[in-house]
């Protein structure tokens, strides 16, 4: 991705830092955003030393910090998540906060950014193309949902945007 400004949530995690290294190696300028709850700054040492990676310690639940950090980027990889499943027993809202709410905040920051049209256009359209081409066909949602799918173990997800009949954009 030469000449791209890339934003990676969860960028100091094991998988996120591997992606950051690859993007930097491909010529991108990368911002790795992570709250370091499970990630490690040391995972980014090589990328930061290259001069093509900036690390921002921040929480996706802090909308102002997220808005400042995501500004000016034209590609977003959202990899932040709670990977320590055992913590969910003690902190029953942890996955809600670090999964659902954090994803909502990323989508909302993208929606409000100057690159919103390009990001929206990059998502598959329900009933038309990509990973959701066979979903929602013959329903009012066909052609009105732009989203990405995800699967973890036996849990499936859909994250993105939907245009309502009255023209509102929902996340």
Structure description:
This protein has 171 residues and is of the alpha/beta class. It is 32% helix and 23% strand. The protein contains six helices and seven strands, in the order βαβαβαβαααβββ. The protein has helices at residues 14-25, 45-49, 63-70, 87-90, 94-112, 116-121, and strands spanning 5-9, 29-34, 53-57, 75-78, 145-152, 155-163, 169-170. Helix 3 (63-70) crosses helix 5. It starts with a strand and ends with a strand. The mean pLDDT is 89.
Total helix count?
A: 6
Number of strands: 7
Low-confidence stretches: none
Radius of gyration: 17 Å
In which range does the helix fraction lie?
25-40%
Strand order of the largest sheet: 3-2-1-4
Strand content: 15-25%
N-to-C span: 27 Å
The succession of helices and strands, N to C, reads EHEHEHEHHHEEE
What is the topology?
Layout: E1 5-9, H1 14-25, E2 29-34, H2 45-49, E3 53-57, H3 63-70, E4 75-78, H4 87-90, H5 94-112, H6 116-121, E5 145-152, E6 155-163, E7 169-170
Parallel strand pairs: 1-2, 1-4, 2-3
Antiparallel strand pairs: 5-6, 6-7
Helix pairs in contact: 3-5
Short description:
The chain has helices spanning 14-25, 45-49, 63-70, 87-90, 94-112, 116-121; strands at 5-9, 29-34, 53-57, 75-78, 145-152, 155-163, 169-170. With 171 residues, the protein is an alpha/beta fold.
Features:
alpha/beta; four-stranded parallel beta sheet; three-stranded antiparallel beta sheet; 32% helix; 171 residues; 6 helices
